[in-house]
């Protein structure tokens, strides 16, 4: 670029202003709209561990030893607790809801494919 003196910067009446060539320094793309932030998924609170296990008090020493020695028996004992039953029930509900949503999506897939095909045909015409 050639510097233009201040006096020459304003053209005389009836004359064309001088043409100055600009050099592109940087191209900044248009701002893309920000994708709205999704809220975090809800977090399920882990229930507090019971301070006592009354059912253990009623067990014999042999039953307690078997419970301690056998993982499957311990799992059954823990899954029988009310807190574990509540979480198991919630998990079952969520899985059933997820299965229902998946079936809805699969049911709509054929309709989506037909609409997509019609759109492609319309664009080609």
Distance between the termini: 50 Å
| Global mean pLDDT | 85
Q: What characterizes the major β-sheet? A: none
Task: Return the string of H and E elements.
Answer: HHHHH
Helix content: 55-70%
Could you give the count of β-strands?
0
Low-confidence stretches: none
Number of helices: 5
Structural class: mainly alpha
Q: What is the alpha-carbon Rg in Å?
A: 37 Å
Strand content: under 5%
The outline comes out as elongated
Give a quick summary of the entry.
With 125 residues, the chain is mainly α.
Index terms:
5 helices; elongated; 125 residues; mainly alpha
Describe it.
Residues 113-125 have a biased composition (Basic and acidic residues). Residues 30-59, 106-125 are annotated as: Disordered. The protein has 125 residues and is mostly helical. The chain has a domain at 59-125. The chain contains five helices and no strands. It has helices at 6-9, 54-57, 61-69, 71-79, 82-124. Helix 3 (61-69) crosses helix 4. The radius of gyration is 37 Å and the shape is elongated. It starts with 5 loop residues before the first helix and ends with a helix. The model has no long low-confidence stretch (mean pLDDT 85).
